[in-house]
Write a structure and sequence with these properties.
single chain
């Protein structure tokens, strides 16, 4: 099963079929979520409609309208529409492109009492400040050890 990921600042939870944006949650039908997951794995690439249909509905004969409806549902959940498209771009006569940066989770997210705690997202939450703090603490310990040694002699 697919781990949680982010599309910009929007949390996507494929396992539960939910998108969390601005503190609100939207439930997506399984195939609509599959479209979002597929777009996220091909972020910033133009995906032809035929390729999306084949990937999401491989054993079913569906029309372009089914994909168009899925994209429309995704846009609603992501807080946009076809004319105001920040995340999913329609490329006329070609297909669709997810243009917002996607960050996949290295660790699962925890949900604590209505509060989301995001941990370990590549590309969104970096551990540079933690490393910097460790280096600074180590430097302070070395200086303290040198001062103690000098003071004792």
């Amino acid at each position: 099963m697919e781990d949680d990921f982010r599309v910009g600042n929007i949390l996507v939870r494929p396992q539960t079929g939910t998108v969390i944006r601005g503190g609100r949650s939207w439930h997506l039908e399984p195939k609509v979520m599959d479209v979002l997951v597929y777009l996220s794995h091909h972020q910033d690439k133009v995906l032809p409609k035929e390729r999306l249909i084949q990937a999401i509905w491989p054993d079913t004969s569906v029309t372009d309208e089914v994909l168009t409806n899925a994209i429309s549902e995704l846009r609603k959940a992501l807080g946009e529409n076809a004319k105001n498209s920040h995340h999913i771009q329609t490329i006329p006569r070609r297909g669709y492109r997810l243009k917002t940066p996607v960050s996949f989770s290295e660790k699962k997210l925890r949900h604590d009492g209505g509060r989301l705690e995001a941990q370990g997202f590549r590309g969104v939450f970096r551990s540079h400040s933690l490393r910097g703090g460790i280096v600074a603490a180590f430097a302070v310990l070395v200086i303290a050890a040198v001062l103690i040694f000098v003071h004792q002699t």
